Each structure stands twice: as structure tokens, then as C-alpha cells.
Amino acid sequence: PDVIIEAQFDDNDAEHGQDHLQDTLTDDIKKLSLDTGEKGKAAGVAGVHRAKQDDGPKVNDPSLLPDEFLQRTAKVVYILEKKHSRAATGFIKLLADRNSEIFKRCAMFSPVDHRVPRVYVPLADCPPDFVSKPEAYSQTLFICRIVDWKEDNNFASGQLCKSLGQAGEIEPESEGILTEYGVDFSDFSPEVLECLPQNLPWVISPGELAKRRDLR
């Protein structure tokens, strides 16, 4: 009863049907029961003269089971590096419970990426007419940045950064993706532009072409 048998369902099992899979599981359980029983009998016969000294090995001791029957477990002890930018693209909507105290202070931000939690955002960050006309912003994309996420709360806390525009359009969608991944898409500074050739039109010299691989 302390052992969990795991079976892998593959294409061969699909060809033979569900009955074949059940027969395989039944055979594995019988083999395990027989092996455990034989080991118990052998241990009982060999350990009669020392039964008073110790209790002997227990059948439910995980260390006595093969690795294939064990489920490895672990827990996170430290976060080495935060990879996510904590910015997400999504939509805002009013909270369902209009009588709650938080309804007067916050709106709900629902990220497009379902791996990111839903976020409480202050109503002060939302458009001025959002409370009176929430349906007008049902298809408007916003950028929200998570600022806190308490352990005892299902929802994070964040701030709306900006409105991107209508969902489905290329420019708002592209800007949202770049912002989520922390890509700087702002205009190049004058210092950077000065590094480019100033005498236009600029062409690659024959000497450079001779020692380079042309990938055009």
C-alpha cells in the first residue's frame, strides 16, 4: 500500500487497447507483491535469532525500494536570479464584487500570458471614465508591472504603465511583447548615431568584400 506504480502509456499500448494496459499494471502489482512477500519471509527466517536486538528492516522503508518506484521531491530554498521582467500585457476590468471595499480602490488586470498571475491595479492608474464605461476598454491592451505578490494572496499587486492600443493590431501587440521581455526599443541616442558612416550613400569597399563571406 505504500508503493505507487507508474505506467507509461505509449503507442504500443494504444494499439493493444486499454485492456492490455490494465493487464500490464495487474502483472506489475502481482510481481511487486510476490517480491515483497519473499523478501519478508527470507528476512523473517534469517532474523529469528536477533529479533530481540532490533526490529529489522521494515517493508515500508523507502530506502529498501528500487529507484523506479520512488518519486523525487524537493523544495525551492533560494532564487538565484529573477528572469522575468515583471511586466505583462493584458486587459483591465472591474471586480465582480461591487460591494467589497477593494472594488472602490482597485481594478483587475488579466494578463494575456496565463503564466503570469492576475493583478490588482489602482483605479487611479486606469482611464478617468473606466468605472463608468468599462466596456469601452474591453479590447484595449495595457502594460502592467508587478510590484508585489504576497504569499497569502492569489493576486499580485501592480501598476498600469501605459495603454498600448487596440488588441489585434500589429504595433500594440509588438510593443507589448518587447516590453514583457525587457527589450529596449527606444530611439537611438545621437552618440550612437554618430558611430554610423556620415558620408552617404555608404558602400562596402571591394577590399572588405574580398575578406568577408557575402550572406546577401
UniProtKB/TrEMBL annotation:
InterPro entries per UniProt: Dis3_CSD2, NA-bd_OB-fold, RNR_Ribonuclease
Residue span, CSD2 domain: 107-182
Keyword Ribosomal protein applies: no
Record keywords, A-Z: Cytoplasm, Exonuclease, Hydrolase, Magnesium, Metal-binding, Nuclease, RNA-binding
Residue stretches in coiled coil: none
UniProt GO molecular function: 3'-5'-RNA exonuclease activity; metal ion binding; poly(U) RNA binding
Compartment annotation: Cytoplasm
Location, primary (coarse class): cytoplasm
Superkingdom in the source lineage: Eukaryota
GO biological process assignments: miRNA catabolic process; mRNA catabolic process
Name of the featured protein: DI3L2 exonuclease
Organism of origin: Rhadina sibilatrix
Lineage per the UniProt record: Eukaryota, Metazoa, Chordata, Craniata, Vertebrata
